[in-house]
Amino acid sequence: MGYIEDLRAIVGHRPLIFVGAVVVIVDEIGRILLQQRTFPNGVWGLPGGLMELGESTEEVAVREVFEETGLTVSELKLINVYSGKDHFIKAANGDEFYVVTVAYYTENFIGELSVDIEESIQAQFLTPNELPSQMVKSHRNILNEFLKKHYKM
Fold this sequence. Notes:
With 153 residues, the protein is an alpha+beta fold. Helix content is 23%, strand content 35%. The longest helix is centred in the middle third of the chain and has 13 residues, at 57-69.
């Protein structure tokens, strides 16, 4: 079991604070990597996940991207940190939590794109005009901020 599962075994469904990281990965022609997640219900999002004990947010970002996409990212640049009452989640199983999400972007990655079939249906590089309508709301907000501040077309 991981850190989160261990915590849940102790505290049940009570609200917790979790820290996570996501990465906007931009390829050489300006497309953004998104993954269609198996949960919740095939919505699209950015690669990323929650922190384990002892990790920095950068380490979370690198580990999660590799686990979910097979890519190794480097030269992460901060987009923003997202937290507060608007980042409350109640999972289908009743677990409640607030997420502090650190969002990064990079154009530096190596490896062969693949997906972890337990977490993703597919992963694709898409242009900003091709972004799916069914996205994790917080990830859509992160992408909107990234596109406004950092995107070069």
